[in-house]
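Schema walkthrough. Field components (list of strings):
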Amino acid sequence: MLIPLGFLAAGGGGGAFDLLESQVLSSSASSVTFSSLSAYASTYQHLQIRAVWRGARAEADDDLLMRFNSDTGTNYSYHRVGTFNASSVVSAATTSADKMFVSTGSGNSSTANAFTGVVIDILDPFEITKFKTVRSLGGVASSINYLQLISSSWRNTAAVNSIQLYNYSNTAALSRFSLYGIKGS
Amino acid sequence: MATPTYTSLATITLGSSAASVTFSNIPTTYRDLILITNSKVTDSEIEMNLIFNGSSTNLPWVRILGYSSGLTTSSASNPYPTTGITGDGVQILQIFDYSATNKHKPFLIRKSFGTISWSDTIAGRYPSTSAITSITLDPFSYNLASGFTASLYGVAG
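Field assembly_structure (string):
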């Protein structure tokens, strides 16, 4: 059965899932930041980041890291479950870190044109009565193979006003980070 | 300014079995695609070809599979990173930057098949810089069953 889309594709809608901002790197960058997020607090309950990224360092792999509100203190925890080159299923956890891991994927020495896809869910980022919970799922199949499900926490009740994403060195050009808002009831 | 997104592009439900299903002429105006299926086929559990742009090609992929007997991980490069079953289940395929012409296309698949006690997660890559304009699901030597459903969404970005 062939389903031609063309003119059948409907646009817009005004639903509960909105694109807020998007950044596409035209050249490598030290980090990507979404700021002044308090502007979204009255409208959205949750945030999601959908990203396609590649690390700029000359390694086969790289990690995508995240901080809230420029907090460089050891106020983050995370647990990772995943596979690296399909050798086994592994897990790791840290209860007191100065950043969150949200993805592991391709560095600049991996397969050309291979980027890592990741979906990052940030639950209740604007609530001031709870710590912040993050869930991410991402991976890449290239000269290196990574697949990870990661749960993270920022132990701070402050509303999230900025999100910084970065790699160990720079983030490669053509990487894309899109921020979405999800409305509550 | 917020842009409403997650647009329904097409939904099909098979009233009778079919050899395959294809979404074609996919508009390039979105950033990501999400395809949600129930993956019903006419045999118990089979690999299903995932074909982009009408040409079957090897898709590198890596998986973590939880099933009734345990947990396993594997990787391969072939045209069938996905699966169909005769029972009920749900499969969500996310394709990132599908219309970009300057990178390969990473994708993620999550499958939950309760009738065979599977929970499956896959990361893969369409190794082409061509924009994806069609997606075909084609089970090996079998058919998609009556009741098969597939919904394609475009996500702005």
